[in-house]
Design brief:
Layout lengths: L5 E2 L10 H7 L1 H4 L11 H21 L6 E4 L2 H15 L6 E5 L4 H12 L3 E5 L9 H7 L4 E5 L13 H10 L3 E5 L11 H4 L3 E5 L10 E5 L28 H39 L3 E3 L10 E6 L4 H7 L3 E2 L15 H5 L4 H4 L2 E5 L6 H21 L1 H7 L3
Parallel strand pairs: 1-11, 3-4, 3-5, 5-6, 6-7
Antiparallel strand pairs: 2-8, 7-8, 9-10, 10-12
Helix pairs in contact: 1-9, 3-9, 4-5, 6-7, 9-13
Length: 395
């Protein structure tokens, strides 16, 4: 028997794994010391826990623990990376290269810098949502100080060729930042293979708690330095002041450790259920379009457009299935997705798109229920839409 409601919005956030909750609990009421308190056992225990978590986060991305800085989440990590590098290197140059389909946590800081006198190039993507290393290399000028390209898109799941882009940046001695928020814990990550100099992470996208994230900051070849966003104590190598939220950091580390150890099985689990969902929908419905790359995509991502159906109406009809029409950060907007527009998707189809996010805790029974519910409601909504009827009648 399927337990309702069903959660298929794992790109928005994820349930905290019960094992992660178990790891966190002692640090709320037993080991509650401040990690910066160096004069008693409570502080020592907290510091040890933070060090262990830092190593666990680093292991997930193939980094050294000393290269990991804790933040409040990916939005802060992106802002720290982009604004911090821009301010540090502004005498060297004032140009930044990014992609039109980036998350707003990247686009908005860059637009803020534009208002402060920086210049930016927003590269277009192809119809599958990808940018090429050649495009990036062609956009780099003598004044370019940073390239920012996300590893996996939060709406369509498309994976960018970041490793090749990294090599192009390295050959021009330009720093590369990648927002790996959606990719971490879902596909293999290695900062050396990616040639990434800065990389952003968030715990709540990989079955950890909300309110904590990290920024990888390369210390060697090259040694990346940046200006902090705010001051007040010099925590995290002087890059991010503020008392560390030890329970959240412990949960983040535990979540990363679980993802690293179970990655292969989880990828197969999510991919199998995602394909089951897509195959089931196609067997029952016509007028479906897959948005994003068919193979170079996140294992659990399915973004599809349903012709002659308004996405908002379908979302409201699916009372027992939690899905979304795109990024959770822009879900209140009545405008069609800027990501789908960048792919060349017509506004009508963009308005009919639904994002399904399959995750660790989903089951085949939930997927089968979802297929039946979506097919039933799409059929009903299409029956209320006069456009297909008139079109078939030649009007």
């Amino acid at each position: 028997m399927v337990r309702l409601p069903i959660y298929l919005d794992n790109h928005s956030t994820t349930r905290v794994d019960p094992r992660v909750v178990g790891a966190m609990l002692p640090f709320f009421d037993e080991h509650y010391g401040n990690a910066a308190s160096r004069h008693h056992v409570f502080g020592w225990r907290a510091e040890e826990a933070v060090d262990q978590a830092r190593a666990q986060v680093a292991a997930l991305i193939g980094a050294d623990a000393k290269d990991v800085i804790f933040t409040s989440g990916a939005t802060e990590s992106n802002n720290l990376a982009i604004k911090g590098v821009a301010q540090m290197l502004r005498r060297q140059g004032n140009h930044i290269v990014t992609v039109q389909t980036e998350h707003h946590a990247v686009l908005d800081p860059i637009r803020r810098l534009e208002r402060d006198g920086f210049e930016a190039t927003f590269l277009p993507v192809d119809r599958l949502g990808r940018v090429t290393p050649e495009q990036v290399a062609g956009a780099i000028t003598e004044r370019t100080i940073l390239v920012s390209v996300m590893l996996a898109n939060n709406e369509i799941g498309t994976l960018q060729p970041v490793a090749d882009i990294g090599r192009a940046c390295k050959s021009r001695k330009v720093l590369l930042h990648t927002d790996a928020t959606q990719a971490a814990g879902k596909v293999p990550l290695d900062v050396e293979a990616l040639q990434a100099d800065l990389l952003s992470l968030s715990a709540h996208k990989l079955y950890g708690p909300k309110g904590v994230g990290a920024l990888y900051l390369r210390r060697r070849d090259p040694h990346v330095r940046l200006e902090p966003l705010f001051d007040g104590g010099g925590h995290e190598r002087g890059m991010r002041s503020g008392t560390l939220p030890v329970p959240l950091i412990v949960g983040f580390g535990s979540a990363c450790d679980l993802c690293r150890r179970e990655l292969s099985n989880e990828m197969e689990h999510c991919r199998t259920l995602r394909d089951r969902l897509w195959d089931g929908l196609r067997s029952r419905l016509t007028g479906l379009t897959l948005n994003g790359h068919p193979s170079e995509r996140l294992p659990g991502n399915l973004n599809a457009s349903f012709a002659d159906v308004r996405g908002e109406a379908l979302l409201m009809a699916l009372k027992n299935v939690a899905v979304s029409s795109g990024s959770a950060c822009t879900s209140a907007s009545v405008e069609p997705s800027y990501v789908l527009r960048a792919l060349g998707v017509a506004d009508e189809l963009a308005h009919s798109s639904i994002r399904f996010g399959v995750g660790r805790f989903n089951t085949a029974e939930e997927i089968d229920y979802t297929i039946e519910e979506v097919a039933r409601h799409v059929g009903h909504l299409r029956s209320l839409n006069p456009t297909p009827v008139l079109a078939n009648a030649g009007v």
